[in-house]
Amino acid sequence: MAALSPVLTTYAVVAAVLAIGMATAARAVFSTTGVLAAAVPGWLAAHQVPLSLGGRELGVLPLLPTIAAALMVWRTAATAAERLDAHTPKRAAWIVGTIAGAHGVVGLLFAIASSGGSATADPLAALYYPALISALAASAGVLPRAGFGVRERIDELAWRGLKAGLLALAAFLAIGATVFLAALLGSFGTVRDLFAVDGAGSGLGMLLLSLGYLPNAVIAATGFATGPGFALGEVGIGPFGFTGGPVPAFPLLGVLPDHAAPWWFALLLLPAAVGAVVGWTLRDVAVAPAGRLRAVVVAAVVVAMALAVLAGSAGGAFGGGAFNPVDLRAAWVSLAGVLWVAVPGSVVAWTTGERSRPRAEPDLDDDLDDDPDEEQEPENPGDDGETDAEPGADDLDDDPGDEPGDGPEDGPGAGSGR
């Protein structure tokens, strides 16, 4: 039953948001049945399942509900791991599998239930998208509490690079948020007018929808600040290229500029500074320069993979119209993240890190002068094993009376006077 808790909570939150939007909209007819029915595709959209609206695909979905749903799954999995004492891989896998399976089954059932409505979803996509998102969130909640010793199994250089990569990712997103906030302040009048197009009631619903797409806007601004930019159909915006044109009357799109500006290239100094900071933090990870470069490469790979996933999730199909698709250029953003971290990070880590000192070669002449008796024979013959093994051998050889031929001459008859 605990596995269904985030499923039901997400559905309830989606239904509540839709109820507020329908109740305050100017020309909407509110009904409880309609809200509950609309919450089914809303739940699928919160788990990034592409929807079909009147035969046109909607793949660019708000990320804020997805983040909220993932956090609920993370908390549920962490609580279950503590309650069940999941200190073995088998128990941890059971928790993750149960939560992921519940989300996949519910997604499949929701897709089947909405097949006859105005918003439909592919059953297979409704099965694996919620299962994948919930499995990742549940794993993040279980692993730190399972006690598998993951930290001890990771190489120190890789661990430092992983942490530096996560910090760099946070810095890139912070840059994107700052750029978006600056654009919002500069276009505040336009954005305010777009909220008031259909009155205060519709403005509230537009505000809720804009909040849902706020993470998408931050990721798009991150792609802009790192260089590749983004595109809405034929409209492309980026430091290295600008193609203007009309855009939908959506408040978040009111921040888009109507012409290029030369100072946009100055924004590229910000991701370069992030890469330099990564190199500075990894300057002491190893004495050998190759070890420091290895840690920088790990950080760059972490940033590249994360930016590819985020940019790919924030964009998608937009109904097949003039603004289709919403392309955040995930491949180029990922490549830009690699370069912004790897190039300045490697230079800083190489030049500012500790350098190994060459080992001094031993001076053989000085060693011989200091220890003159080190390779000489010992003066005391008693220290020789052969001398101790044959005591008195020299005395026997020098005594003529001990030879065998002298015995008869030295007997009693030699002194008898014969």
UniProtKB/TrEMBL annotation:
* Spans annotated as Disordered: 353-418
InterPro entries given in the database record: DUF6350 (IPR045931)
Q: Which domain of life is it from?
A: Bacteria
Transmembrane segment boundaries: 92-113, 125-143, 164-188, 262-283, 295-318, 330-350
Which keywords describe this protein according to UniProt? Membrane, Transmembrane, Transmembrane helix
Question: For bias kind Acidic residues, which ranges apply?
Answer: 363-409
What protein does this entry describe?
A: Uncharacterized protein
State the organism named in the record: Actinokineospora bangkokensis
